[in-house]
Design brief:
Protein name: Enoyl reductase (ER) domain-containing protein
Distance between the termini: 8 Å
Strand content: 15-25%
Structural class: alpha/beta
Pfam families: ADH_N, ADH_zinc_N
Keywords: Metal-binding, NAD, Oxidoreductase, Zinc
Number of strands: 20
Number of helices: 11
Radius of gyration: 21 Å
Helix content: 25-40%
Cofactor: Zn(2+)
Pathway: Carbohydrate degradation
Shape: globular
């Protein structure tokens, strides 16, 4: 597991020498994926080295592979992916006092500067200088050993699984969306998208007391999964032959037949233009639409005058902030159980195959975990 050590006594930069190879999952500017040796870790005195035990595949990992970029964040060379991970501290720097070797932790991937206005006002997720694991140029956590500032490692409770630890990042993102657009007990709502984020939103909406909850998707298999997982939810398969307004009208009719009013809050969890445009027609006047999904840089066909005349608030989130402790408590105390979302598990050495399965809609995957549980 490596030895706990502090600094080299000259420039304060800690040295860590792993006792095992450090394989990692990469993409590159040629839009290839492959396994390779991790970049050097070079941890500092305020860092920890984490022996990663479980990582989740996120849609953004697939996006970086397929398109080479998300907005201004561009893959320009070999790049290590991953930002949904948990593992065990195997080394800590001299300045780290709240964590110890042997502690199990989850990695909050965004590391803000800590000094700008956004950081000082509490919106650290909006820091312009954030260093985010797995986002170019910062190496991700889909590797055996990962270095990360100790401040942004969350100690896991006794008995908390590494798999649950790897689910904290997507759950925290959804919790941030619900923090900005909360649902009330007994209110109807619509969740657009039955992928991993949509399923997390379904779990949070159910735990929040929303009723009825309607879930939309193009994929009948994912809608079947949602119905089997939360039997009292209502599902609607998007009809690609209909326009946005007609699909929205059918969604609202289906929700009404289930006893629900036109929703005050709608959660869009895909970031796909057609889904976003359809969702704009769903909230009641003076309602709001929370976009949790990540989409393309420029988006057309948004019904501007409809949402303007109806005074619908169009809201967004950027990752998460301050929601990790809440996410830990929700899973620890079984208020929410996200384990059924894990449909596939791969070994670290098969991480490239895991990414391929995540990108393949025919694989039947919802959430894929990459595990490295050997001693």
């Amino acid at each position: 597991m490596g030895q706990e050590q502090h600094t080299n006594g000259t420039n304060g930069v800690a040295k860590f020498h792993p006792d095992k190879p450090n394989p990692a999952l990469f993409t590159n500017e040629k839009r290839e994926i492959f396994m390779g040796t991790s970049p050097e870790l070079n941890p500092g005195p305020s860092d920890c080295v984490v022996r990663m035990r479980c990582n989740g595949i996120c849609g953004s990992d697939v996006h970086f592979w397929h398109t080479g970029r998300i907005g201004p964040l561009i893959v320009e060379h070999d790049h290590c992916l991953g930002h949904e991970g948990a593992g065990t501290v195997v080394w800590k720097g001299a300045e780290v006092t709240h964590l110890h070797v042997g502690d199990n932790v989850a990695v909050e991937p965004g590391v803000p500067c800590g000094t700008c206005f956004q950081c000082s006002s509490g919106n650290y997720n909006l820091c312009a200088d954030v260093k985010f694991s797995g986002v170019p140029p910062h190496a991700g956590s889909i590797r055996r050993f990962h270095v990360h500032p100790a401040t942004w490692l969350h100690k896991l409770p006794q008995g908390f699984s590494f798999s649950d630890g790897a689910l904290l990042e997507p759950l925290s993102v959804v919790l941030h969306g619900f923090e900005r657009s909360p649902i009330k007990l007994g209110e109807a709502t619509v969740i657009c998208g039955a992928g991993p984020i949509g399923m997390c939103a379904l779990a949070v909406a159910k735990a929040s007391g929303a009723a009825p909850i309607l879930v939309t998707d193009l994929d009948p298999g994912r809608l079947k999964f949602a119905k089997n997982w939360v039997p009292n939810c209502v599902t609607y398969q998007i009809d690609t032959k209909k326009n946005y307004q007609d699909n929205a009208a059918d969604i609202l009719r289906t929700l009404q037949e289930a006893g629900g009013d036109q929703p005050r809050v709608v959660y869009e969890c895909t970031g796909v233009q057609s889904s976003v445009a359809t969702a704009c027609y769903l909230p009641r006047p003076a309602g709001e639409m929370m976009v949790i999904g990540v989409g393309k840089p420029m988006m057309n066909e948004i019904p501007f005058m409809h949402i303007s005349l109806a005074e619908v608030d169009l809201k967004f989130i950027n990752r998460s902030h301050h929601s990790w402790p809440m996410a830990i408590r929700l899973l620890q105390h079984k208020v929410i159980d996200l384990q059924p979302l894990i449909t596939h598990r791969f070994k670290l050495e098969e991480a490239d195959k895991a990414l391929e399965a995540s990108a393949d809609r025919n694989s039947g995957s919802i959430k894929i975990h990459i595990e490295d549980l050997e001693p």
